[in-house]
From TrEMBL:
GO cellular component terms, A-Z: external side of plasma membrane
Organism, scientific name: Chinchilla lanigera (Long-tailed chinchilla)
Ranges where the record places region Disordered: 204-228
Keyword terms, alphabetized: Adaptive immunity, B-cell activation, Cell membrane, Disulfide bond, Glycoprotein, Immunity, Immunoglobulin domain, Membrane, Signal, Transmembrane, Transmembrane helix
Membrane topology type: Single-pass type I membrane protein
Source lineage: Eukaryota, Metazoa, Chordata, Craniata, Vertebrata
Alphabetized Pfam families for the sequence: C2-set_3, V-set
Superkingdom per UniProt: Eukaryota
One BP term from GO: B cell activation
Subcellular location, principal: membrane
Residue spans of biased composition, Basic and acidic residues class: 218-227
UniProt name for this protein: ICOS ligand
Length: 279
């Protein structure tokens, strides 16, 4: 199973016995692990969490009431980028001579929304190459960056811009992209930050006339669809305010696909669609 969650949210990693038969908690041993790292566990007559890794002792727990019904799912609080891991659930029964009653693997993929890109340009003498700088912060995983010619909505050559991606103190990614293009009157460009895991594009627009500031647009598209279908099949639209808050409690299960070859440029949209939430 694959589970997706946003940074800071709470998430449930499922591990349920298929027959949902009753279990005696004095008869079962339950371990949630990442390789050899213990995330959470249940041992009869032992309420300690000392064996669990310190990164998870305060964030991961099992429900005794649920385990009695055959549900050994892990509750994980305050998800971080470092939780992008494969979690293994192991259940043994003492009455079976410690035979294995259940074995499940759950892959957790973590995402965070990037801030809306801000594009700035500096005054340049006529005839000299134009320079635009795009900045976006606090996203996860590492983004893809595109620059768009706003005149015809075409994607500019990758060789025209230099991207610098760094990890900040929160473990999230910040990106700065510098675009240099030949001078032309009324040049207008857009910087697009793509979060492949969220299947989300955000763009900031450069001014039509050079100035010391930039402007931002809210855009999104479904990368698998041509432009004429994009507005009807959005995986998610992010509002200009409260981006992180809007998805802060999101935990969903879905396998995403994103094929770069079908990218045809982001489309401005007016409506908003919420991401599905069916963990």
């Amino acid at each position: 199973m694959e589970v997706r969650a946003t940074v800071g949210s709470d998430c449930l990693l499922s591990c349920v016995h298929p027959e949902r038969e009753p279990f005696d908690l004095q008869d079962v041993y339950v371990y949630w692990q990442i390789d050899s790292t213990v995330v959470a566990y249940h041992i009869p007559q032992n309420n300690s969490s000392a064996l669990a890794d310190s990164r998870y002792q305060a964030r991961a727990h099992l429900s005794p009431q649920s385990m009695e019904q055959g549900n050994f799912s892990l509750h994980l609080h305050n998800v971080t980028p470092q939780d992008t891991q494969k979690f293994t659930c192991l259940v043994f029964r003492k009455s079976w001579n410690m035979g294995r009653a259940l074995n499940a693997v759950v892959t957790l993929r973590v995402a965070a929304n990037f801030s809306l890109p801000v594009v700035n340009s500096s005054g340049t003498p006529q005839g000299q190459p134009l320079t635009f700088t795009c900045t976006s912060t606090d996203g996860y995983p590492q983004p893809k960056v595109y620059w768009i010619n706003k005149t015809d909505n075409s994607v500019l050559d990758r060789a025209l811009h230099n991207d610098t991606v760094s990890v900040n103190a929160r473990g999230l990614y910040d990106v700065v992209s510098v675009l240099r293009v030949p001078w032309a009157p009324g040049t207008s460009v857009g910087c697009c930050i793509e979060n492949v895991l969220l299947r989300q594009n955000l763009t900031g627009s450069g001014p039509a006339e050079l100035s010391t500031g930039g402007s931002t647009d809210r855009i999104t598209e479904h990368p698998d669809l041509p432009p004429r279908e994009s507005s009807g099949a959005l995986f998610g639209t992010v509002a200009a305010a409260g981006v992180a808050a809007g998805l802060g409690a999101l935990c969903w299960v879905k396998r995403a696909r994103c094929r770069r070859r079908n990218y045809t440029g982001a489309q401005v949209v007016a409506q908003e669609h919420e991401l599905t939430d069916h963990a």
